Amino acid sequence: MSVAIVKYNAGNIFSVENALKRIGQEAVVTDNPDVIRAADKVIFPGVGEAGTTMQYLREHGLDTLIRSLRQPTLGICIGLQLLCAYSEEGDTECLGVFDERVSRFEAGKQKIPHIGWNTIQAKSSQAKSSPLFAGLGSDPYVYYVHSYCAQLGAHTIATTHYGQPFSAALHRDNFYALQFHPEKSAQVGEQILKNFLQIAS
To answer: CATH for 3-197?
Structure first.
């Protein structure tokens, strides 16, 4: 099985490659459209700022490429946010794969950014049967680092509460996305990556 990790101006990409190696899966980090289109699975991870990152994607034709993918594709952290319709960060029109909008955490008692471990909860019975979450049990802990989050919407399949509820995971057709970092989420994260790799193309 071939796995492509989308290379662009975002941080933390190679930690995802290393996480895949730990579970026995090799991947190629690339911005080559032909390689990405031909891959059995595509991962769109990263840490960064929405406005400058979307500008980079557009300038390199990666925005059109990502929207056109038909194989299972997994967005992680900024990858989830850029797959949404809009982000308040930089007043940014994003890829629009998901209809959800991304906003900054509301000011309150909680610290921003949201850093550390928190639980995810399946939003519905359909979400509980999502292949991403197979074998995880109820309310597993995952690791977060973010100041912006996707609002709840039709494509939300799991939520987390941090001062407010937000979308921990999204799913639409062949696109899946996680706000948390599976590559930093110990055995739970490894299981989620294994589950993604097992999704039929």
So the answer is: 3.40.50.880
